[in-house]
């Protein structure tokens, strides 16, 4: 039972601190014979990389991944895949003054209370930098999905930044890749940019966000009730991401306000199987996928590191006013989009393997070919 | 890896179907020397029992629990505790007609697609009746907490039923036990009762709800980042409950709309340790408890079994109009309150054991006493 | 992580004490659509039942199993299967005097030291009676194997009782079922019977035994290196059985004395795939099955409960001479044969499921049949 | 559920292949505040390193370990510790010819059959080189034990090489470190050296061995029945090591030949608790430690890579005579001694943590010191 691991058969253990020598992911249970290179994984890491636009932290971390094991001649072998990312842009001196201080909203104080020791540089293990390892592992899951279930698509996007929400009538999937916010509504992008600019530069503030991740093309039957339910695993995956405070499937919290008649997804028989009139359920019934779009939403709190002074204490209990300098994301939710996608990819692959077996039906033949 | 189990050291496996001979929970990892009787557990089961008021299903299930193992002379022994509840009020004939039909909003169709067989009586394994086993296991957790951490209080209540929410200014914890809705706001109880009455009797409809569970008095330091985080485990625990579609900690989904300045819980030094100006975090930072109230919220969708006709299909793909007769809860969220409490109790005990060890520091002495 | 559970996907949790109300097994991960009745399981339980011959304990426990969940209309549903065996022949008074005493060779003292409480009646949880639950679970595994891999045969037998070993030249599988010792060598049965008779009746003593279990017909490719190796799982399964002190695969401990040339199993190509000149490896290379017979051997220590007086202490540290009355097996190894078979069946099924997926490839079809 | 992991709370996942870029261990669950440096771990790795004497392989692998995470300012932080060993002396060309061939006694054929792909260089994942990662993880366990339970000693030694066994009357623990065989009997060392010399140089052969590992000073009460028993976990740990074919606790397989009177360890009350007249049990009763020496023994088969030709087949089924060149250990059992110790250290620490909690009772204080 590793408490730094997720997944049943596709089992990922992340390791590493923000300012240690390296961080990474030990990926066990990837099926054999999946084409996999560092380039494949780098593609996904680059989407999460800091410094892509002025709206994210200006730290320069190349986040270059190195595959240390589990791949032979360009294909996975079914053995553990070790992914390592060296930490390079470590300005540890930025963090010297917080060695004795607990930053409000951060895990400084709870790590100290729990462990009696903490790597305070950049938040150490509790830094959002840990999510780079998740994105790398998600890259492996993507490659395996491409091989085992090429019909499955997974895509995430921001639906809200602070008080500003998208207009779903303008939803355009193609737009997601066209702006700095993974925003599917071109109509709000300019407004979001101005809002965030002002917040960061003038207001010395930060803001929360809401992310949605959709799985399209997943077969019916994924999920393992009653405690390996697909929605249970997705909720845990999302809630385990730094700064996430809420998780929803389909109607989510809004389901509390509905009546049974409104909420029913009626069923008809289509050409390729059952079809549903609506998708209040978010593609999951009883913890098992229906074959519809699986819809996950999660809220990311505003970055706690802001230039505005906040009241706190030192380790010795004395009061201190904290102003968090450094190069921080004004809206950490932006970079949470690829993280959410990566976690969802891992969960979906995991359940496909539960369905098909550890090696996905592979066998080595012996005899004349 | 049992997919019907939850918990790390305090490990609960539920088993059983709605209309089988019995259902129950195998509870492994309860510390030894905890006073435990059937009466202790029955107390909690009775809170979830159907038929407590006109606002819940009128089925009559006594839900009497029998302890089959793990207790000797009134105390736990550290070995697995088997809890069995015989099913008694089984009107299987009520369900005969759904053997070939998939009820909208239910897991009938996905269980069939996944397993190729299903116990269709009352939803079988996917019935909310399974939560009785969770409540029984929660009763064991409550007894262990009373022994190991008597300062911990866990209480749940409804904060919303359909469109109607409580007024938090009228919040009164004592009121929770005084009405049929576990509602902490006496001012809305009458309105809720009328609303639900009309919905059930006139409108043949059902409604969703939102439940909040608070943990008071838990020590700082509980939670095991980065994947056994306390909020991750609470989110999974809540999302695994039947009909739950969303889960929040502290500010929850609303955190998306906040700025960093608004969201910061400032820290001061109190007499007994750190104190916080606010609790936007819901008592958890970086996945570890702060010592503040831990605040979990979850949304329960409206009961899918309603008397209003909905469109669906039979197993052979032909269309059918489904009207779900039988004795169903108009708002299954009411009975989800004790279920939520039970899941939270299990999670909290689990993390206390991770902190203190499997047997909670017990040792048998040999020698003159 | 239940510490009373074994198996990866086919996950068995045993529960119950010798003299409690009942004992049993929670079996999670059995594939759906496997024909299963109480009679199917009872068949295997009856082989372990006490009182089958004068060479085993004369306790009369019918060990009737009741299936409480997971089976619908004679077939498994893929949900947890609860197996319960009520304890009936409980002469608790036989054990009254050992409440304050630690019997040499038993777990009385270590359970006390660990838990600070113990159900002393008949050894409580540490009683060999717990293995009835394993045999019941093994019966489920046998049924699933019959369905998923009918070519697999699993059979165990005794190869040694105290100083007396079988002559492998006289090995006759058909003989195993013909005597009271599951002995494959008819030539030694009389001698064994006399030896055990004398030991029990005249010498007030007991004796150890060695059991061998063979898996025939298992496919190549089972096993999950490097820590879910097939031999690792078999070793753990055998060592977890009460009174087992050693476990071997193939040559086992004797491999220490061999040279590389002697130990090599040479390979040739047969009609149906690779063939091996010998089977020193016991059917497992690198933790993965080769397709040959899988050969597991384990040693069972002599029953610690004997009528001869042995020196010990009471809980208060004062000395006492212990004579264990009651109805005990003179050679508990005899009844360990069906237990060993059951554990092996569970391990083999588990690895077949790892290979094929949780539900073994089942899918429910929707549409005209 | 990682199938490349061992341990409950102290959880080690090994990764890496013989000739890949690196191999290592992800160590999760090490308690915080344990002093740990690369030098501490290197000490143990050096004992396993090839080329220490003419009796082991002459490959030159420095096996330098790098700590990539989980340590801050010389102390563990309670977060995952990543240990990496770069592979350096990779003569991959030595292995080119076995790409299409299955070496008898090796896992070449079963890995191929299972995965349909294998890194054939040096055995890939199935190489004994993987055990370097276990020794590194064992080094972490040793450091944690030194901190949490300094009275615990763990030491291994060879008791048999091929047909040659030690004389236990000459057992001298100090001698173990003085010779090339970790042999506690100075009187046989010369004979063993000559025997192995001849085997390797003249006979082109290899030989098996038997290793014993003793845990001295462990407290009573370690072990988690009935499936996390201390002997179960030790058996699995030992059997998972490459080339191990048998595992024993205390009397082990010889227990089969004993009577109950012979096998009883009688108990008396000593100054510091219970004492035992003998230790047939090997320090474990009912799966729980008694406080006596814990005695584990395991047999290592002879190295399969020998210069003598053996019959085998190619991937296409055609026959081939295999002569394994390269630099191989004539008795791989020698280097299995530190591996066995490392696995035992991990198991003992794991059970101490189960007893005391994940962080071993650590808490960070806030306030004036």
UniProtKB/TrEMBL annotation, chains A, B, C, D:
Upper lineage: Bacteria, Pseudomonadati, Pseudomonadota, Alphaproteobacteria, Rhodobacterales
The reaction(s) this protein catalyses: 5-O-(1-carboxyvinyl)-3-phosphoshikimate = chorismate + phosphate
Role summary: This reaction introduces a second double bond into the aromatic ring system.
Gene Ontology molecular function, alphabetical: chorismate synthase activity; FMN binding
Enzyme Commission number, as recorded: 4.2.3.5
Name of this chain's protein: Chorismate synthase
Stored InterPro entries: Chorismate_synth, Chorismate_synth_AroC_sf, Chorismate_synthase_CS
Cofactor binding: number and manner: Reduced FMN (FMNH(2)).
Assembly notes: Homotetramer.
Binding site for NADP(+): 48, 54
Family named by the database record: Belongs to the chorismate synthase family.
Biological source species: Pelagovum pacificum
A GO biological-process term: amino acid biosynthetic process
Keyword terms: Amino-acid biosynthesis, Aromatic amino acid biosynthesis, FAD, Flavoprotein, FMN, Lyase, NADP
Binding site for FMN: 125-127, 242-243, 286, 301-305, 327
Enzyme superclass (EC): lyase
Obligatory cofactor(s): FMNH2
GO CC entries: cytosol
This protein's pathway: Metabolic intermediate biosynthesis; chorismate biosynthesis; chorismate from D-erythrose 4-phosphate and phosphoenolpyruvate: step 7/7
